[in-house]
Amino acid sequence: MSYQPPVREHLFLLRDVLQIEKYANLPGFADAPLxxxxxxxxxxxxxxxxxxxxxxxxxxxxxxxWNPDGSVTTPPGFKEAYKQFVEGGWPALGADPxxxxxxxxxxxxxxSNEMSSSANMAFSxxxxxxxxxxxxxxxxxxxxxxxxxxxxxxxxQWGGTMNLTEPQCGTDLGLIRTKAAPAGDGSYRISxxxxxxxxxxxxxxxxxxHLVLARIEGAPGxxxxxxxxxxxxxxxxxxxxxxxxxxxxxxxxxxxxxIHGNATCVMSHEAATGWLIGEENRGLxxxxxxxxxxxxxxxxxxxxxxxxxxxAAAQFAKERLQGRSLTGPKNPDGPADSILVxxxxxRMLMDARAVLEAGRAFIFWTALHADLAQSDPDEGVRQxxxxxxxxxxxxxxSYLTERGFQVASDAMQVHGGSGFTEHFPASQYLRDSRITxxxxxxxxxxxxxxxxxxxxxxxxxxxxxxxxxxxxxxAAHTADxxxxxxxxxxxxxxxQLQEATLWLMQxxxxxxxxxxxxxxxxxxxxxxxxxxxxxxxMAKAANDKIAAGDADPFYANKLTVGRYFxxxxxxxxxxxxxxxxxxxxxxxxxxxxAF
Amino acid sequence: MSYQPPVREHLFLLRDVLQIEKYANLPGFADAPLxxxxxxxxxxxxxxxxxxxxxxxxxxxxxxxWNPDGSVTTPPGFKEAYKQFVEGGWPALGADPxxxxxxxxxxxxxxSNEMSSSANMAFSxxxxxxxxxxxxxxxxxxxxxxxxxxxxxxxxQWGGTMNLTEPQCGTDLGLIRTKAAPAGDGSYRISxxxxxxxxxxxxxxxxxxHLVLARIEGAPGxxxxxxxxxxxxxxxxxxxxxxxxxxxxxxxxxxxxxIHGNATCVMSHEAATGWLIGEENRGLxxxxxxxxxxxxxxxxxxxxxxxxxxxAAAQFAKERLQGRSLTGPKNPDGPADSILVxxxxxRMLMDARAVLEAGRAFIFWTALHADLAQSDPDEGVRQxxxxxxxxxxxxxxSYLTERGFQVASDAMQVHGGSGFTEHFPASQYLRDSRITxxxxxxxxxxxxxxxxxxxxxxxxxxxxxxxxxxxxxxAAHTADxxxxxxxxxxxxxxxQLQEATLWLMQxxxxxxxxxxxxxxxxxxxxxxxxxxxxxxxMAKAANDKIAAGDADPFYANKLTVGRYFxxxxxxxxxxxxxxxxxxxxxxxxxxxxAF
Lengths: 595, 595
Fold this sequence. Notes:
Two copies of one chain form a homodimer. By secondary structure, the first copy, chain A, is an alpha+beta fold. In chain A, a hairpin with a 5-residue loop joins strand 1 and strand 2. Chain A has a domain at 456-585. Chain A contains 20 helices and eleven strands.
């Protein structure tokens, strides 16, 4: 059995937990009643399972091929699948109807993204980067640029990329050397080398629109002198069709541990023609629109790889017969019991469930806030939505990727020796998922963003609102016996998060290293608290269903996994708090030469 | 800079912490005064760094080649390196002088093994398996078998393997189907297929001695009917030289995620000639001699890969310039500071140090107990040595491999995007190290062994002795101000381990699943407690040096890393205890069909 898209989980979240029907007054939601959402997700599931998933191992084994003419051939089948993907209208799901998109809420697009990412992460990165380029132009482009590029990016007819990294410059974008010289006709000539450009060159789309960070001649040094440019592979002609070939080319592909099906390119710009997006020297602000969206998408990739890996492990565990249950044979007529009877195998599968189910809820819940930030008529709701998006993006990016990778590693462990061979999918999930902890800002950079920028922003308004919302939920449900364990667990986690937050505020002033030394552990504590809140919300929804007489075992199982979370995942919160409160002293004490 | 063998660390442990000069009255130790040990380790370091390490990436990229005649070609350079390895006498370091070995204590051989394993894990598996075969024949073979095989295995002239796994049978050896039929001349005809046989076929040695588990016709079912056989690739002739080719052949190689330089073989025995080792149907007992040795060796592999990965990450961190320290530029004349100034990068490097330095001490300390178990004149000391070996082997195998893999993953993280490419060594360390959590019994099987067998053995004698030893250390040093933090940390960890142990004993009776559901967390708690003890021992040694006026910053740095361990690693003990005490209820509650 291969990947089975978790549409049942998606519908539970959308209908019962987030209750998206409450938002039918908002654009996007208005056009997506639940029965239509179910239809869309069912179709997306079918496409992911039947078209994308069978190509996942193919992509891993074949990889991409760089040809001496600078072109790149994607793995067998990718081109045909991409054609179907575009024809099915999937790239346009969440795009603006003004530019040919379907205008569905982000929370629904997120469900669809999860499925394509689980089915084939390397493939789904091509449309993923395209959507990022779409969003940056949507946010910062001129009306002319929008009209020219957005419809073709929204449909997937053209692809998009982000050209940020250079050999000497990854996280520290102030070190960028790529140059832009005004050509006198409103365009620029872009020159420089970019590395690690995902989807930088391929044979899927008829054109590729590179968004390139570069420094205009005479611009200030550092990050204040960086501008963003549109550099198309083929320059659009007067009709907006691909015209002359631009001087941007792929010099080669990176050999890497995973995501072999996605072309990671060295890109050379040799006086390539580009057009400024937005104002001079303000490129990073627009690039961050793209980056923030990408970061949430990477969080989802981490989750999605975890989900696919979990499914493979669960299936293996049910089929592999080895040993006997310590409480008596469960398959007495067979040569052995399935390894699902062994508590330590269960533990790994339950860990996966406890984290994945709540992680999915957390990212959906946050995406819903992104929708509300866009279109809720109430300014307070919009502001809270924006605050939550800003605050939680680094948490979701890092925590879900770290846990997704852990799930993929545990999934390999469930497979035993089989998992280490390339005959089973566990290795690919482990290798593919590992990049999610690194790209779009390493997880440590996310932790720095959370503690250094997002927490103190607006006097701590976002984190205060998040904790107040939790307090209100706890107060409302602590008297309900069925909800009490969840309310208690949540209250405990929130108290620890609050203590850690206060500690960081008090001690980060004295020495900023004190705050950053604990930032990754603080982020984990934040992630655990968020998951505890999601389990409480899910438990409430499941309890309500059960109380209303719904006998679907789905709800009782949900409560079981939730209790497992409280007992066996949440205890890590205490350790994270203790680590946060140690500060920077021993972290920084060794002299550099001692490493 | 490539791998730098940590001889300074080895000498600190052997001289100052374990004080091996105290054992000069024992065989092995008598012939290895510290100056000779230093010479040997310095030579081993040179060989590892100069001959083995440069072949590590070569082995990964080229892998092994299966040829249509069933032969296997190892990666370029391996054959020459193996020849040098044998000529240098390295395989014989720990072997019995009666069979051509050098008879060095296990604790010293362990230091040498660490270095070859860090330098080139895939290569070092060839002599590693050979030593396992040596040990099994040494333990269970007849005098004739010993005389015939041991000198050639000890010298490395011949290689060795373990043939256990079959497609339907990994952990559950009772399912073995390979058959042995008496040939009437004292030999047997062995028939069956074995998979995942490390070093099963190669071009390094002139003969390969397979130790094969098989079922003699008519033997009882399950594990009580399994015998162990010697099946040489070439049957020894009357002079003990390789003679006729035996009917054992390699059908192909496994494609796997890592350790590409080691040939993982599908082996076919087609009425191959074999000789019984020991008694009929008692094969598992002898195989476990080999397996226990191998398990300790795998723990060392996990540590060794972590060490190599840490070194690569530390080097990268010192060289990569990106961003500025939050407390002011540390490299003001450069374009940026090295990333070593960032607390979250330090955190990952310090985590590695805190675990690797104490992990190395723990495995050396245990190997020393193995030496004492062999040769101490005091029966009580011998028994304690045996008890500790039995108790701690599963802890070291699982805990050090889990942490070693975590270090390798963090080392990739320190590299950022570079780490995910195959141009840097981080990917190979991550991929190679991952198998250590799986082979020689998965880490979950080790946890089951610890909780189900090793804890209750002899009424809990081993764990009681271990905890009493810790109590005595704490009592002796708690009044020493310099030692108090270490004594307190150790006492806290030991109290938690004791509480967890009692909980398991009390609740495992009612339902064995209760004990096993928490077995992996219990093992982690045991590992943390062991590391806390080792940090206390190392702190004592370092403090003594400092008190004696030794100004080498090595000792002050050791104390710093130790304090880091107490503050930022040991807090996980509380979470592990909490998880142990939840038992099996939620772990086992979901019906099988819900997975």
